[in-house]
Amino acid sequence: MKNAAALFGHQPTAVPAVGASAPAVTTPVGPAGPAAAEVSTRDRVTQLLLEQGATTAAQLGAALGLSPAAIRRHLDAMLADGDVYAREQPVQGSRGRGRPAKVFLLTEAARVRCGTHHYDNMATAALRWIARSGGPDAVEAFATEQVSALESRCRAAMEDAGDDPLARAEALAAALTGEGYAANATTIASGGQLCQHHCPVAHVAAEFPQLCEAETAVISRLVGTHVQRLATIAHGDGVCTTHIPTQPGRAQSGNPVTTVRTDR
Fold it and tell me: What are the φ/ψ torsions at residue 52 (nearest 5 degrees)?
């Protein structure tokens, strides 16, 4: 979802596209130079984790041009500060010898600092008032109306994408990235997958899933086929993941959208 500020007419700050080259670190002259460089590198690590989700230290080091010792130093500091946490990397098939690799992810506190969250309380209060006054249907109508402008902008950006759902998913990912979602699309064995690595309104959507459902319906209409929401940041997942089946029925405006959780 767009950030909570967008619910009240504020535009989000765009997050750079996944895979975009990181800005070079410039070390100022003087005593503050090394400290400034440290902060800048940590910002770049944070940005990569925001864009890519779970990432190994080796992958982070390669992307940033840092030695294993250097990236480990930054990750240790971020672990100590509560900005990242580590977990074992999932392994498909038989596991080889040695310790399993660890992947690093941003903590919720670090995610909050990446976006404009100071409108969350106001947005939540407003939606609670709508729910009390008009019930669930009113919240759903509000959520649908809020994403309509996003749908129009993305549809315009996807004008030359053609009719193939996977090609449209790639175009949609680019459009969503421009909106601040840090999105990417990939092809998998069962079709395609659209991932959104940023959700500044996760706290609001956790209480009001109608926001995520309205966004999923937009994705379905824009891609031009039935889709399945596999995971959302609002429900505690690391990434909002939408599956695009290979041979689904064509989605029509107003058709129900299936949400499937795979983490339970």
Answer: -105, -10
